[in-house]
Amino acid sequence: MSDVAAKVKAIIVDKLGVDESEVTTEASFTNDLGADSLDTVELIMEFEKEFDLAIPDDEAEKISTVGEAVAHIEAAVK
Amino acid sequence: MELRRVVITGAGTINPLGNSVEEYWKNLKNGVSGAGPITHFDTTLHTTKFACEVKDFDAIQYMERKEIRKYDLYTQYAFASTDQAIKDSGIDLEKIDGDRVGVIWGAGIGGLQTFYEEARAYKDERPRFSPFFIPKMIANIAGGLVSIKYGFRGPNYTTVSACASASHAMIDAMNMIRMGKADIMITGGSEAGVNEAGVAGFNSMRALSTRNDDPSTASRPFDKDRDGFVMGEGSAAFVFEEYESAVKRGAKIYAEVVGGGMSADAFHMTAPDPDGKGAKLVMKWAIEDAGLKPEDIDYINVHGTSTPLGDIAEPKAILSTFGNHAYKLSISSTKSMTGHLLGAAGAIEGLASVLAMQNNTVPPTINHFTDDPEIDDKLDFTFNVAKEREINVALSNTFGFGGHNATVVFKKL
After folding, report:
1. Closest partner residue to A45 among B64, B65, B130, by Cβ?
2. Which domain holds residue B57?
3. pLDDT tens for the 413 residues of chain B, in order
4. CB contacts, 8 Å: A29 with chain B
5. B280 and B368 share a domain?
6. Which of B4, B218, B222, B396 is most buried per CB count within 10 Å?
7. Rounded CA gap, B104 and B87, in Å?
8. Catalytic residue selected from A36, A39, A57, A58
9. Are residues B188 and B292 located together in one domain of the fold?
10. What is the ipTM of this complex?
11. How far is B257 from chain A (nearest CA, A)?
12. In a domain, B1, yes or no
């Protein structure tokens, strides 16, 4: 697992109060991890803070799974 | 319209004297001070460095980790006391009709710490506020979340009247049942103002005691050397229930809630009317609403915050409301022990009033050292030591900034 993926996972575990084993690449924030719309916005904000980047709203809307988040961040921090 | 009767069948509390009703009463009766140096934040830059904090609060006993993170401390206190009260009442959540259960909560400020943290974070580090900023901070969210947790779909709102908030909530909750709008109401109040902004804000108003060298004697209502109130925090919750159905299910009944009064000082933003005109009206109207006479009152749990002006105005109002009977009734300010819980004051003091009746014991006004010549010393303030006496009817007075006054009347069954 990449460094980004590990950090993303840790944030999700902390913010959504889910078990680490549930945070798979395919897991959807809302369908699998119990996030509501507010949780999703908070997650994006935490990613921005952790990786010191800005994710515009139209791009944030496309991030719905753990894998999508990792891919977006890895592309952005390169 | 025939008004239905309302009784208290459950209670819970998290406050500076205890995290259960039993512990609270034990410490009230024994005259224990809940004050100590502030542990919630670094007070180096603050004028007042002590408060009556809640001790050993373990939120995880009452909610999930995810909830703790999303709920301001004032909501966590509300959840904890509500959980205790519902369990204490013995109501079967599976059997009751959630549409007939409402929640009217009281909070003077709400999520002050959340507001402060978010505003600071916005300035220091982030371009945006958290999506939980608003729902975590608003003063009505505790009541909303309680309804969500238990599926209570009856009337639901929060009263905001500074230090009278919880009393207003309890009066409205009583009236909902009286008028048949609900059969059970969850009510009470919570506050969590012992934080950087809360203490600094009240310090700026010169409202807080600054007796940093002796926190446990700082809250001294009606003492000549009082120098302001001591900030408290916490919550108390009640289950109010329609009398007939409570009896039918064989519920334990603490007391009957027989009336409430509400008035305004119409005088000043923060200072009380020096003659206590609003305070006099609120007690008069509360007693009338209860269908009682002033002579029926045995005990008044007064607002008595340990501030210079308020502690002079309230006894004056008692004397003009009760005449000679003022000297026969017992008075005490339990804020001498709990500190001032702001919007939750009416809840924990209503609970103190009910427990006083149940135990026929007046909890004391501790920390009395010197009489104030401006306060009639023939009034019985129950200084320093609890007093055993028959209490059949008790009043709980609360007065808030803005000149809001609310008084609740409890009667032994």
Report:
1. B130
2. 6-255
3. 789 999 999 999 999 999 999 999 999 999 999 999 999 999 999 999 999 999 999 999 999 988 999 999 999 999 999 999 999 999 999 999 999 999 999 999 999 999 999 998 887 766 678 899 999 999 999 999 999 999 999 999 999 999 999 999 999 999 999 999 999 999 999 999 999 999 999 999 999 999 999 999 999 999 999 999 999 999 999 999 999 999 999 999 999 999 999 999 999 999 999 989 999 999 999 999 999 999 999 999 999 999 999 999 999 999 999 999 999 999 999 999 999 999 999 999 999 999 999 999 999 999 999 999 999 999 999 999 999 999 999 999 999 999 999 999 999 99
4. none
5. yes
6. B396
7. 18
8. A36
9. no
10. 0.82
11. 40
12. no
Q: Which residues of A touch B131 (CB under 8 A)?
A: 37-39, 41-42, 45
Question: Is the same domain home to B64 and B96?
Answer: yes
From the candidates B130, B133, B136, which should be mutated to test the interface with A, based on the most A CB atoms within 10 A?
B130
Same domain membership, residue B406 and residue B353? yes
One-letter amino acid at B335 equals: K
B52 is catalytic: no
Q: DSSP per residue over B322-373, as a string? A: HGGGGGTSEEE-THHHH-B-GGGHHHHHHHHHHHHHHHTEEPPB----SB-T
What is the DSSP-derived secondary structure letter of residue B375?
S
Q: How large is the greatest C-alpha to C-alpha distance in chain A, in angstroms?
A: 30
Q: Considering the entire predicted model, what is its pTM?
A: 0.95
Torsions phi, psi for B151 (to 5 deg): 70, 35
Using CA coordinates, name the residue in chain A closest to B64: A17
Scan residues 23-62 of A and list those with Cβ closer than 8 Å to B.
37-39, 41-42, 45, 49, 54
- How far A61 CA sits from the closest chain B CA (Å)? 15
B214-253 b/e with 16+ CB inside 10 Å = b? ebbbbbbbbbeebebbbbbbbbbbbbbbbbebbeeeebee
Q: Are B64 and B175 in a shared domain?
A: yes
Domain contains B291: yes
